[in-house]
Amino acid sequence: MILPIRAYGDPVLRKKGMDISADYPNLGQLISDMFETMNSANGIGLAAPQIGLDIRLFIVDVSPLATDEDYADIADELKDFKKVFINAKILEESGEEWKFNEGCLSIPEVREDVKRKDTIVIEYYDENFQKHTETYSDIRARVIQHEYDHIEGILFTDKISSLKKKMIKGKLSKISNGEVHINYKMRFPNKK
Hints:
The chain is of the alpha+beta class and 192 residues long.
């Protein structure tokens, strides 16, 4: 089932997510719905707060990037990179900071350069509640960091300069009020 994505301004996007257990109600269906929702919106990541749940769950699927020329050198690593992250904790961020123009399904029509470290070590449970500790770099680390921020109540717009924030203030207000044209299901906090 395709779920509405919560728009910028929804209080759930600012809540730090709670850990869940293996017996979380309908977890398998929730994960399936999240992938369906993300795919219908042409996203490559989606976190539970974006569908209104303040829990520590996010998904990523960077396989669409495998055909992008910019990632030709890592296409093999990207083509099958579809993962579920439950109760994730980033243990370490290292390497060079690099800028990348990020967007977010909860903040449509806004893209800004965000600096992030290029390598992470993350501990998480998969959909079968098997524990993993893994290291990622390149675009995979970036997508994971972006989704991880969501379960911490952080948005990519929090990581841009004060000047840039002032410049996009009007756009963010329009998003909160539902004054955007999007082709996916969305729930706006202030829509009249």
